[in-house]
Design a protein that fits this description.
By secondary structure, the protein is an alpha+beta fold. It is built from 6 helices and 10 strands. It has a domain at 162-249: Monooxygenase (Up-down Bundle).
Length: 251
């Protein structure tokens, strides 16, 4: 399973050096996902060989939402809980779409004036799912959060409060880095060198986590190694923040 990272256009670190990259087109009617192989853009099919995924979601009173073709098939018998073309409502207030109510099969929440909320069997849906999208973006855009989430998919959860296990070699490295930070407090050049070292250490661990999660057959030892690496990323992030604070204090 690949360790997916997303970046804003033009802001990717080390572009074109990743082993895996995808582009996602979230369309009003259909969505698709593509990648580049041997210099050629290729649209990826699903497990049944279909290249387009209907941009349709069906909310149910019990069970997880249905998406794509199953949701589209259910739209005939359950139109009030099956949402399609939702992008047309993005950025509009509830009052803006009142003229369309006779053409839409949905029940709208009149108490939600700013953001249209559709009442479904699973409750009102709109702002909540926008929040989930933002949460997903934050997770995929943050290497540490991305690693923690991917480990959780393999049944490895980091109990940060009670699990203090750490690789002894890295514990010694922590002490070394702390001492180096203390010595560099009064020198912007020394802080810059330390920052570069932290970035290098971070990149190495990020790449290692990706390789493990991309190739693991759920061997416990491999997942344990990835768990340690994610914990080490947490420390390096704190170090990076402290270096930035020290740099600001010099100006």
């Amino acid at each position: 399973m690949a360790l997916l990272q997303i970046s804003e256009p033009g802001k990717s670190t080390n572009p074109h050096e990743r082993r895996l990259a995808v582009g996602i087109d979230l369309g009003t009617t259909n969505s698709l996902i593509a990648t580049v192989r041997s210099g050629e853009a290729i649209v990826l099919p699903d497990e049944e060989g279909r290249y387009l995924l209907p941009s349709v979601v069906r909310f149910r009173a019990e069970g997880s939402p249905q998406i794509g073709y199953p949701a589209l098939d259910a739209s005939i018998n359950d139109p009030m809980n099956t949402i399609a073309s939702s992008k047309r409502m993005i950025g509009r207030k509830t009052a803006d779409i009142k003229s369309l109510r006779d053409k839409l099969p949905y029940n709208f929440d009149d108490e939600s004036a700013n953001v249209p909320r559709i009442i479904t069997a699973d409750g009102p849906r709109s702002a909540q799912y926008a929040a989930l999208i933002n949460e997903a973006y934050t997770t995929l855009n943050d290497p540490m959060q991305r690693g923690k989430y991917m480990l959780s998919l393999h049944g490895v959860n980091l109990d940060e409060e009670h699990d203090t296990r750490m690789d002894p070699e890295f514990l010694m490295q922590q002490i070394e880095l702390r001492e180096e930070l203390d010595d560099a407090q009064s020198s912007i050049d020394a802080l810059a060198r330390l920052s570069a070292r932290i970035s290098d250490e971070f990149s190495k661990r990020e790449a290692s986590i990706g390789e493990i999660l991309d190739n693991t057959s759920e061997q416990e030892s491999q997942l344990e190694t990835a768990r340690h690496l994610v914990r080490e990323l947490q420390f390096l992030i704190r170090m990076r923040s402290e270096i930035e604070d020290a740099e600001e204090a010099l100006f």
